[in-house]
């Protein structure tokens, strides 16, 4: 069994074996720093110890649901990567184990809920395009209740419900304004089919800095397949996206991402999986929306007066890993807003992990620490779609939570409307 696990994990088996069992990763791991963290096998260090034992001795048996459950307590937040003295890419090692599991276990290696999650893209695509009445019926309380039961999702888990419409439609037939700088926009599925307003606000905001977004044909980034360990599917999607996006780079365009998960996939995961020149070219051309906006504000190409506005910044796990927090805080501070605190706690969503009934208690417990830091009132900026949804859900909608660029666009638009109405009033 040990040789089978070693064969399937490939170089990531060696990575697991480099663990010196220091436990530094435990000190930052959200699931370890919870009420179950006193059980050694449920800690980050414990997962490495389990893998080492399975690789060396074949015990415990690695391809049992019980073993996988323990590995699945890694929610892929990436917080441990910077503290590990052995520089082990811990979440990738865990993903590599999941991949091994899906290959080694015959029949149905994925649970019913995981199979539902794996079909996220076609489901939200269909719902976003469904005619109004049908959409309303499908998203009505009785069918959603049934869906939650079948998939094993918790009753209070924030599902990604499509707001209607697609980014494909929004960008169709829109030609870039002559003279404007153009960027190719990789939106990924959430903005494309669940919340197109994310992409629309990015487009409109950047236009004020004379930047146009073009919207190339694109496929899902594969981040959910990555979480589930379905590496072959991620590879296929990566190859398709890289082929298209490298063509955009050849035209001299940067690749804009408005989701930290997409920034991560295009920058790090695609080159790791494909290991070719084109994927590295695309990786180098990626610019995250928060990096871009901060540089535009710094150079004076984008300006607004935000004095009098105050936010709490939630520095999400991916924002921390991708070093985006300073870009977000810098943007708002330069524009005169008051960043009334930076909360660095994990929200507990773990992508779609926190949706499952079996994980919801732990997910809520982890998120509870963040809520204490955020306090009872005030607007929150949180750069992650799932983190924003989790905070809204945990506070039962009492907190206003925005993606940073959405908040900025809303304010710029409101200021423009106010300016226009003042001028109309003066003229009449
Ligand atoms: S990625 Fe996050 S959840 Fe997984 S071991 Fe590291 S700190 Fe813990
Ligand atoms: S920090 Fe790295 S070396 Fe230390 S226990 Fe965790 S994985 Fe092992």
User: What spatial form do the alpha-carbon principal axes imply?
Assistant: globular
User: How many beta-strand elements?
Assistant: 8
Point out poorly predicted stretches. 419-428
Question: Biggest sheet: strands side by side, in what order?
Answer: 2-1-3-4
Identify the bound ligands: iron/sulfur cluster
What does this protein structure show overall?
The protein is α/β, with parallel strands linked by helices and 428 residues long. Among the domains are: 2-104, Orthogonal Bundle (Fumarate Reductase Iron-sulfur Protein, Chain B, domain 2); 297-413. 55% of the residues lie in helices and 8% in strands. The chain contains 22 helices and 8 strands. The chain has helices at residues 2-9, 11-17, 44-57, 65-71, 90-104, 112-118, 120-129, 132-138, 141-151, 167-171, 188-194, 197-207, 223-228, 231-250, 260-274, 277-285, 289-298, 317-321, 325-334, 357-374, 385-394, 404-427; strands at 181-186, 211-214, 255-257, 286-288, 310-314, 338-343, 379-382, 401-402. Strands 2-1-3-4 form a 4-stranded parallel beta sheet. Helix 21 links the parallel strand 7 and strand 8 (401-402). 44% of the residues are buried. Mean pLDDT is 92; it is low at 419-428. Bound molecules: iron/sulfur cluster (2 copies). One iron/sulfur cluster (SF4) binds next to helix 3.
């Amino acid at each position: 069994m040990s040789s089978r696990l070693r064969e399937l994990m490939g170089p990531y088996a060696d990575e697991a074996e480099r663990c010196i069992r220091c436990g530094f990763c435990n000190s930052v791991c959200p699931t370890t720093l919870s009420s179950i963290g006193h059980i050694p096998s449920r800690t980050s260090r414990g997962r490495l110890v389990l893998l080492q034992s399975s690789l060396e001795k074949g015990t415990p048996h690695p391809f049992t649901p019980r073993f996988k459950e323990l590995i699945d307590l890694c929610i892929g937040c990436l917080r441990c990567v910077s503290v590990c003295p052995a520089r082990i890419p811990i979440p990738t090692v865990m993903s590599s184990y999941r991949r091994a599991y899906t290959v080694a276990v015959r029949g149905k290696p994925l649970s019913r809920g995981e199979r539902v999650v794996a079909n996220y893209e076609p489901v939200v695509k269909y719902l976003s395009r469904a005619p109004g009445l049908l959409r309303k019926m499908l998203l009505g309380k009785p069918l959603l209740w049934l869906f939650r039961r079948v998939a094993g999702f918790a009753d209070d888990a924030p599902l990604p419900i499509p707001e209607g419409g697609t980014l494909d439609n929004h960008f169709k037939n829109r030609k870039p304004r002559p003279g404007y700088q153009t960027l190719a926009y990789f939106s990924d599925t959430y903005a494309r089919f669940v919340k197109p307003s994310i992409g629309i606000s990015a487009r409109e905001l950047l236009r004020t800095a004379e930047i146009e977004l073009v919207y190339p044909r694109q496929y899902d980034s594969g981040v959910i397949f990555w979480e589930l360990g379905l590496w072959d599917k991620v590879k296929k999607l990566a190859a398709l996206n890289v082929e298209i996006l490298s063509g955009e780079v050849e035209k001299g365009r940067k690749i804009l991402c408005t989701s930290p998960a997409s920034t991560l996939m295009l920058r790090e995961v695609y080159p790791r999986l494909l290991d070719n020149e084109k994927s590295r070219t695309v990786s180098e051309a990626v610019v995250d929306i928060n990096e871009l906006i901060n540089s535009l504000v710094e150079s004076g190409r984008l300006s607004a007066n935000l004095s009098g506005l105050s936010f709490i910044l939630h520095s999400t796990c991916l924002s921390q890993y991708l070093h985006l927090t300073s870009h977000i805080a810098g943007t708002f501070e330069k524009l005169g807003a008051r960043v009334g605190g930076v909360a660095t706690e994990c929200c507990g969503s773990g992508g779609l992990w926190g949706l499952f009934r079996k994980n919801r208690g732990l997910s809520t417990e982890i998120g509870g620490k963040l809520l204490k830091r955020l306090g009872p009132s005030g607007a929150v900026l949180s750069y992650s779609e799932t983190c924003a949804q989790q905070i809204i859900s945990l506070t039962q909608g009492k907190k206003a939570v925005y993606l940073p660029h959405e908040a900025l666009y809303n304010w710029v638009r409101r200021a423009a409307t106010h300016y226009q109405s003042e001028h109309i009033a003066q003229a009449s």
